[in-house]
Specification:
The structure holds two protein chains of two kinds. Chain A is an all-alpha fold. Chain A contains 14 helices and no strands. Classes of the chains: A mainly alpha, B alpha/beta.
Chain lengths: 266, 300
């Protein structure tokens, strides 16, 4: 577990800044809520937006954007908070093998009595831990700071918990894809590209396919859809929002490690 | 421990191609226990690729490589290897202490007292981040990490590039001590005097092929000598060309420069007929011989 400990330690300082950033995001979002709360004309404005756009930003039929569940879902879970966590996951994942191989530091580590499997796996586990810490801080600060702004009114507690679990799972999936891109090629760029492609394609497809009324099975292929399909804060927990993406993350990790174990280092 | 019969480094038909480029070509090598083996070749000859094959960073296209009797990818065998790469890339945030702790943990412990001596000997400040260190100081960190667990086999790739002459001397002493303790050293270099000073045998690599493996003493015996005679009067043309062992003659106003292979006695006998004022013998080392190998003179 030396590699895991080291990987966590190496990223500790950056993580603290990220935690600070997400806390600030939560605070600003919450602080803005009282000015929106109960504004009917805001909802009317939203109704005039194209459906694809509404779907993309988590504005669902039957949930007012001026209510706490509608507002938080649109402002945080369907947009910035998710995107930031996914950026953290992608940048982290691409660096684990690809990045450190590219900057040359990996080779000296692999000259030690440690297998490539151990290095890759422990580093990915380290990123899962860091990601869990970051998600947890985002969740705790949101809940802790919500009261003065009455921003949890009408929010389903179990749904909120599942929303954060889903956020974590979706980020972990993106981390795994970025990790695989880096581990397969030995460079950071392809990892970033793989993760970003999944994020952009998944996010856009979620909005567009929903709006276009595409068959359910096509939408069900999209991990973003599992998470965003329905406002968890308003309608309560759905298991498929929380877990499948996390299990799915094992596949890119396994593939990345399988290739990394056999190929030449750069 | 490795049975004495198993050479610390052994390759058979080791070949590595990158696309159309053959970086290492059918390399057969056996490094014996307790020796310093000099691995010489110009830049781009395939020395580093060979080392990366030995350590299992690269898979051979053909043939095989074994270190201490196992493939280099085997973690257990790497515990007994110290590796100093030519290009040292450390995470710049590490201090030498961090790095020593981290690598020490990975290797299941290291000789703490010995590590402290190493830090003292190379005057390393272990508390500064590696990113703030000069090239030479970073090299010292590389040396300490390669030697600190007292490995059985040291694989050193251009070890003293960037070290000042005093520390190079210190480094040479360290290698001699480790060899006296029983370690084997694989020393890759393109700097001849270093290899000449340390190695008992050398292998010369050119364009991925091992051209020759020889004892340094033999090479020295075979090495050509350049001898310059400064004479009172110009030397008559044609005097030296027929002398046994003479390979080239250059006449100039104040004397003659002769390149001779093997014993110089016949040359000296002929030179005795001249009024010699001064003799100069530059390059009495192996440089010329190696240059010739490097340039492919052996193939004519």
């Amino acid at each position: 577990m030396t590699i895991l400990r080291r990987a966590v330690r190496d990223r500790r300082n950056a993580l603290l800044w990220w935690m600070l950033g997400l806390t600030a995001l939560n605070l600003f979002t919450l602080a803005f809520y009282p000015t929106i709360r109960g504004q009917q004309d805001f909802d009317e404005l939203v109704q005039q937006m194209p459906e694809a756009l509404r779907a993309m930003f988590g504005m669902a039929e039957g949930v007012s954007l001026s209510s706490a569940p509608g507002y938080l879902w649109a402002r945080l879970f369907s947009s910035l908070l998710t995107i930031l966590l996914i950026v953290y996951a992608i940048v982290g994942g691409a660096g684990l093998v690809g990045g450190s191989e590219e900057d040359g530091t990996l080779e000296l580590i692999l000259a030690n009595p440690v297998s490539r499997l151990a290095v890759a796996l422990q580093r990915f586990l380290a990123l899962l831990l860091l990601l869990a810490g970051l998600t947890l801080v985002a969740a705790l600060t949101l809940v802790a700071m919500a009261a003065p702004f009455s921003a949890l009114e009408g929010v389903d507690p179990a749904g909120l918990a599942v929303a954060f679990c889903g956020l974590y799972s979706l980020s972990a999936l993106h981390a795994s894809v970025a990790f695989a891109g880096g581990a397969i090629t030995g460079r950071r760029g392809p990892g970033l590209a793989a993760g970003t492609t999944l994020a952009a394609a998944g996010f856009l497809a979620q909005g567009l396919l929903t709006a276009a009324g595409a068959p359910t099975w096509t939408r069900n292929l999209n991990p973003w859809h599992w998470y965003l399909e329905q406002n968890l804060l308003a309608f309560g927990p759905r298991w498929e929002a929380a877990l499948p993406a996390l299990f799915l993350a094992a596949a890119p990790v396994a593939l990345g490690i399988a290739v990394f174990r056999r190929r030449d280092l750069r | 421990m490795t049975p004495p019969a198993v050479p610390p480094i052994e390759t058979r038909g080791l070949t590595k191609r990158f696309g159309p480029l053959t970086a290492v070509d059918s390399l057969d090598l056996a490094v014996e226990r307790g020796e310093v083996f000099g691995f010489l070749g110009p830049n781009g000859a395939g020395k580093t690729t060979t080392i990366r094959l030995l350590l299992g960073f690269l898979n051979p296209t053909a043939g095989c490589a074994r270190v201490l009797g196992s493939p280099g990818a085997d973690p257990a065998v790497r515990r007994r290897i110290g590796y100093l790469p030519a290009e040292l890339a450390f995470d710049p945030r590490y201090t030498a202490f961090d790095l020593i702790d981290f690598f020490g943990d990975l290797r299941g412990g290291h000789d703490q007292a010995f590590t402290r001596t190493l830090i003292d000997r190379f005057q390393l400040d272990p508390t500064r981040p590696v990113g703030d260190l000069s090239t030479g100081n970073r090299r010292k960190v590389g040396i300490v990490q390669a030697f600190m667990h007292r490995p059985d086999l040291l694989i050193l790739d251009e070890p003293t590039s960037g070290l000042d002459p005093l520390l190079q001397q210190e480094f040479h002493r360290l290698i001699r001590e480790e060899v006296a303790r029983g370690a084997t050293v694989f020393l890759s270099s393109h700097v001849l005097p270093e290899v000449e000073a340390l190695a008992s045998r050398v292998g010369i690599l050119r364009k991925g092929r091992l051209i020759t493996v020889a004892a340094v003493d033999d090479l020295r015996r075979k090495a050509r000598q350049r001898i310059e005679f400064f004479t009172a009067r110009p030397v008559p043309r044609g005097l030296f060309e027929a002398v046994p062992g003479v390979r080239s003659v250059v006449y100039h106003d104040r004397g003659v420069q002769v390149l001779v292979e093997g014993p110089v006695d016949p040359l000296i006998k002929v030179a005795a007929t001249l009024t010699v004022e001064r003799i100069h013998t530059p390059g009495q080392d192996l440089e010329d011989l190696f240059l010739e190998y490097y340039q492919g003179g052996d193939e004519q």
